[in-house]
Structures are given as structure tokens and as C-alpha cells.
TrEMBL record:
Region of interest called Disordered, as start-end residue ranges on this chain: 181-207
Domain of life according to the entry: Bacteria
One of the record's GO molecular function terms: oxidoreductase activity
Domain named NADPH-dependent FMN reductase-like: residues: 5-155
Basic and acidic residues composition-biased segments: 196-207
Gene source species: Streptomyces wuyuanensis
Assigned keywords, A-Z: Flavoprotein, FMN, Oxidoreductase
Name of this chain's protein: FMN reductase
Length: 207
């Protein structure tokens, strides 16, 4: 059985950052669920803060640096993507959006994507549904049902009788991503052309 590739994109600006920590925890949860199904997965984490200058140069010149090109290629060829952004002014960061603006609009068609975000207060959690989810829905990705938002007070919290704690939400979202990755039709590695399933989804785009 082929090895799957999972790519986590973290748009955290500090080092270390809670955004990177959340990306790592989600990747671990997906990896654990896949291991339960005897599926091997290679995990790669892309730190956008290290590519910020290259992203800006690509936007104005139209040409990616080798490192940025490799990051874009990794996302394009992944079997599943975890996309995590800090929330600024009730939306994803400019760095996060700029990176995905450079990814081919067809590249995420039919690809499982888990969206997640971090912020200082729970009030920004709605950004998952009014900003991140619509972005990837527009790109025709298969957005995982459970999105994960982590406010500062969520770390170390086990939740209460009304709300799941962060660890439980991470496990659920990671498990959903793993299920979508495991059930996704194998891609022909001999060509970069999308399969019939991806082409059919792409035909549904309305620009």
C-alpha cells in the first residue's frame, strides 16, 4: 500500500508559535489515525515565516525561489493538507493568503484540507467559517467538517459539559482528515495531470 503525504502549512510569525504547535498536534492526530489503519504517512511542515521574503518577491516578479517552489510543489502533490493561520483583524494573515495565492487554483481540487487557526481570544473563532473555510471551498478542496480554533485559554483546557476541550477537537479533526486521505483515490505519480475525479470537481468552478 502506497505511503501517503501530509503537508501542514503554518503561518505563525513567532518562533516558537502556538500556530506551529497546533499544526504539529493536528498532524500527529491524523498520523495516529492512519497508523491504526496500517497506513504509512510522511509528514512535512512548511513554516511560512521562513518564506515571507520569497513569497513577496514571487508576487511582484512572478517567479518563485527554489525553496518556495519546493513548498508549493509539496502542497500540490500532498494527499492531505493542514492549513493553520493566526487570526488578525478577524481573518487569516496576509502571509497565509499570499502563499495560497501562489498555489495553482486547480491544485487543491478534491484534496482533503483541514483548516485551523489560533488567536488571543475565542471571539475570533468565527473566522474559521467566514474566512478560511470559504477560501478552500472556492478552491474546490474537500474541507474537513471539523475546523479547530485555539485561543490562548484553550491550551491545557479539557473543556466542560457543554464544550469539547482542544485535545478532543484536535483528535476529531485529525481523524476526519485521515479518513478522507485514506479513502482518496490513488494518484498516478507518472503525470502531474489531475485525475477524472479532480477534473469533474474543477468543472464545477464558477469564476
Amino acid at each position: 500500500m502506497e505511503q501517503l503525504k501530509l503537508v501542514a502549512v503554518s503561518a505563525g510569525l513567532s518562533s516558537p508559535s502556538s500556530t506551529r504547535l497546533l499544526a504539529d498536534r493536528l498532524a500527529e492526530a491524523a498520523q495516529e489515525r492512519l497508523a491504526e489503519q496500517d497506513r504509512k504517512v510522511e509528514v512535512e511542515v512548511i513554516e511560512l515565516r521562513d518564506l515571507a521574503t520569497a513569497i513577496a518577491n514571487n508576487l511582484v516578479t512572478g517567479f518563485p525561489s527554489p525553496t518556495l517552489g519546493a513548498a508549493i510543489d509539496a502542497v500540490t502533490k500532498a494527499d492531505g493538507v493542514i492549513a493553520v493561520s493566526p487570526i488578525f483583524t478577524a481573518s487569516y494573515s496576509g502571509l497565509f493568503k499570499s502563499f495560497f495565492d501562489l498555489v495553482d487554483p486547480q491544485a487543491l481540487t478534491g484534496k482533503p484540507v483541514l483548516v485551523a487557526a489560533t488567536g488571543g481570544t475565542a471571539r475570533h473563532s468565527l473566522a474559521l467559517d467566514h474566512a478560511l473555510r470559504p477560501l478552500f471551498a472556492y478552491l474546490r478542496a474537500l474541507v474537513v467538517p471539523t475546523a479547530v480554533y485555539a485561543a490562548s485559554e484553550d491550551w491545557g483546557s479539557s473543556g466542560d459539559e457543554y464544550t469539547e476541550g482542544l485535545p478532543a477537537r484536535i483528535r476529531r479533526a485529525g481523524g476526519e482528515l485521515a479518513e478522507l486521505m485514506a479513502s482518496r483515490p490513488a494518484r498516478d505519480e507518472s503525470t502531474d495531470e489531475p485525475g477524472e475525479y479532480e477534473r469533474q470537481l474543477a468543472d464545477l468552478r464558477f469564476d
